[in-house]
Amino acid sequence: MENCDQKSMFEKISWNPLFQQANASVVVLNTDYTIFDANDAFMKLVKRPKQEVIGSFCYKITRELDSPCPQIYPHLKCPMSETLRTGETTFVIQEIPVSKDQVAYFNTVTYPLKDQNGRITRVIELWRNITEEISSKWEKRIKDLEANMRMTIQEDRMISLGKLVASCVHEINNPIQGILTFSHLMQEMLEDGLTDGDIEKFKQFLSIMSNELERCGSIVSGLLSFSRESAMECRDISLKELLESVIMLTKHKMELQKIELVRKFSKDTVVVQGDANQLQQCFLNLIFNAIEAMPEGGVLTAVLKPVSVRSDRKVHLEIRDTGYGISKENMEHIFDPFFTTKAEGEGTGLGLSIIYGVVKKHGGNIKVKSKPGKGSSFTICFPTQYS
Amino acid sequence: MSKKITIMVVDDEMIIRESFSQWFQKGGHEVETAASGFEALDKLRKYPFDLLFVDIKMPEMDGIELLERVKKEYPQTFVVIITAYGSIETSVKAMKMGASDYLLKPFRPEQLNLVMEKIAQQKKLTSEINTFAKLKLS
Asked: Which of these three, A129, A160, A181, is where a domain ends?
């Protein structure tokens, strides 16, 4: 009676247009993993004719295996085995090879069919192809991550800019004060009537004033070029020029912190392909780190030299300080995002991870050496052309 | 400007030293400049100054440290602090340590004259008090 009922039920299912025409693949399994029935979508999925599918083991048909998948690949979760074990509906996302170099993702749900005693007689499996859905989600996720990275770099730029502004304002204030004083002085001299000697003085004052104004101008344009948000653009960049622009922005801070700057730049023009803004940000972070590692003063050495390894042309840029150094425990975390040893509000913990990201993006790599109490050295190696 | 006073401008920035000293020379004062705290102390050892204009932010010895040493070794010398930071805290600290006044950069150079007049008056007052005290004692 039971068998009869089940048989007619399955016949009904088999002829049901929902079963046959469904987009989802439906397969009915016996408890020994042989296929009792399957719809057209399933045949299409496994690319085999119905007579071959019916009666064969599901693992043979889907994965060309000789025993249930988890027995051979323990990491594979099999909804059928799970259902047989628990007696419950199971839900699994499966990765199925569809061709030599392609896989498809299926959302598989099983429904156990039980007899009057509650024993499982057969299991219905519904397979829904979610490959496209997943890839579009992945693409979106990747796009989101890229956008986040851009935003993070921009935020980091703004934080650096804040630090720079404080020291640059101080540096601009001095020329402003001097020029203001000179111009008032010259006005008074004019009102009193000029003597012959005054003309010479005027020449001298004007020359100082214009030199100082030029200095203000270059500080302002340095800050402006730094704050500008621009799309990533790849072009030939002279590392020496870029490094000098960063040094100009940070020079004052170094002087006030009693830091001696030593430049060891090669005479060759070292050119790398890359994004000027990002590289500038990267160097600025390195220099800021070095400055912040030496609150009591010290020596900051910047080295720039081309290196030739067989036919490979590379450039080494090293920023070395005589500061705190990095402890062994911290060393393995320094490039982790949000890792910081600074007090709250003093650092985002993103500086070095941004440096790492930018260096990798430019096909380079970065090495760190440090001795606690002695100082640290960061060496970046970029592929380059130099003359 | 009332009485002539001897001034030293202590700043690591050339344009500040140059412009201030020209300004004071025009006013008929005797002016010296020093590019660092050490140079200022050197010059003080050789010659007495009535008034020092000292920039707070200088490499090596900063203005606060110089102020401290000047007040200790030459208590009769007046010190005016110049700062670009506009930080009230530093200025308050400087005043507590004996600075006579402070100026926030950038300021109009006429303010230098106002500060000097104030200090000249103070100086006059101090010397009058001293004379008076001496008279009374004798």
From this structure: A129
Q: Does A178 touch chain B (CB under 8 A)?
A: yes
- Per-residue confidence of chain A (387 residues) as pLDDT tens digits? 445 566 666 666 666 666 666 678 889 999 999 999 898 888 888 888 989 999 999 999 888 888 888 888 888 888 999 999 999 999 988 888 777 788 888 889 999 998 888 899 999 999 888 888 888 888 888 888 777 777 777 777 777 777 778 777 777 888 999 999 999 999 999 999 888 889 999 999 999 999 999 888 878 877 777 766 666 778 888 889 889 988 988 888 888 788 999 999 988 888 888 888 888 888 988 999 999 899 989 999 999 998 887 778 889 999 999 999 988 888 877 877 667 777 665 666 667 888 888 888 888 999 999 999 999 999 999 988 654
Distance from CA of A319 to the nearest CA of B (A): 22
Q: Which residues of A touch B83 (CB under 8 A)?
A: none
Which run of H or E residues covers position B15? helix B14-26
Number of domains making up chain A:
3
Residues of B within 8 A of A170 (CB-CB) are: 57, 84-85
**Do A88 and A152 lie in a common domain?**
no
Query: What's the gap in Å between the CA of B27 and the closest CA on chain A?
Result: 10
Q: Which residue of A has its CA nearest to B111?
A: A181
Domain extent at residue A281: 231-387
Q: What is the CATH number of the domain that holds A194?
A: 1.10.287
